[in-house]
Design goal:
With 299 residues, the protein is an all-alpha fold. The chain contains 14 helices and no strands. InterPro entries: AA-Vitamin_Transporters, EamA_dom, EmrE-like.
Length: 299
């Protein structure tokens, strides 16, 4: 596949993740964040393990549990804490800092050069998310801010390390390993820190099925496929599509208002995502360019 196709396919994952807020608030019981995260991760992971019939080798267990912790256990837990203690716009704006953190972490762990255009695109994306979601009621709770920053750092680290550690298995298998590991860590935490959930309704079950099968198993397989094929900075910029989708769904499904600043913010986000893909694309070395020109002239 071409790089453009890989970008478009990978973009499907964060676009679908934008539905998480709608499904969580409209279809799931409130007050059980860790339990719901466990029910989202573990069934999806076990299903992928059953489908792929692939278990991580013993030498990979440490890496798999670390990645599962970063991408799911820590990230989802802190995401819920930030959502409970901060207005949604503040939490999402802090989460959008992930793209900037990926640029810095990729430099340290992968040796990826820091490009000015990529930094500008990431900063512009944060501004666009702020325009899209921040309102006059925005407040800064210290615990919530720490959770929002911690969640962004956790997902950024998980993205970069998922690129650094690439097992010779399919994205479905790699996703199944991480989801199962993350779910196994979340399950005892839910049993210790949260009360038992009430009986689930049909709507609750439908919401969990969506978040687990589509919002976890399918989309994270797409995401990790993109992580393996694209530059970390380019992949992380696609994550800014989630708040755009969330706002569009809120307007279409819940009848929430959409102001001109929000429309402008959405346009800024989309422009920054496009600019981020161009800024992070691999550059052909000078000797390779000369070889291409020589071959073209010979032809």
């Amino acid at each position: 596949m071409s790089r453009t196709t890989d970008i478009l396919v990978t973009a499907l994952a964060p676009a679908v993740w934008g539905s998480t807020y709608l499904v969580t608030t409209e279809a799931l019981p409130a007050g059980y964040p860790i339990t719901l995260a466990a029910l989202r991760a573990l069934p999806a992971g076990l299903l992928l393990l059953a489908l792929t019939r692939s278990l991580p080798p013993r030498a990979w267990l440490g890496r798999v549990f670390l990645l599962g912790s970063l991408n799911f256990t820590v990230f989802w837990s802190l995401l819920f804490v930030a959502a409970y203690r901060l207005p949604g716009g503040v939490a999402a704006t802090l989460g959008s800092l992930q793209a900037m953190l990926v640029i810095l972490m990729a430099r340290g762990w992968l040796g990826t050069p820091i490009r000015a255009g990529a930094v500008v695109a990431a900063a512009t994306g944060v501004l666009g998310v702020a325009l899209l979601l921040l309102g006059p009621e925005a407040a800064l709770d210290p615990v919530g801010v720490a959770a929002g920053l911690g969640g962004a750092a956790s997902m950024a680290a998980g993205t970069v390390l998922s690129r650094k550690w690439q097992p010779s298995v399919s994205p479905l298998s790699f996703t199944g390993w991480q989801l199962t590991a993350g779910g196994l860590i979340l399950l005892p935490l839910a049993l210790i820190f949260e009360p038992s959930m009430p009986a689930l309704s049909g709507l609750n079950l439908a919401g969990l099925i969506w978040l687990s099968l589509i919002g976890a198993a399918a989309t994270y397989a797409i995401w990790f496929r993109g992580v393996a094929r694209l530059e970390p900075g380019a992949v992380s910029m696609l994550g800014m599509l989630s708040p755009v989708t969330a706002v569009i769904l809120g307007w279409f499904w819940l009848g929430q208002g959409l102001s001109f600043p929000q429309i402008g913010g959405a346009a800024v986000v989309l422009l920054s995502v496009w600019a981020g893909q161009r800024a992070n694309r691999p550059r052909t070395s000078a000797p390779l360019r000369r070889a291409v020109v020589i071959r073209a002239n010979a032809a």
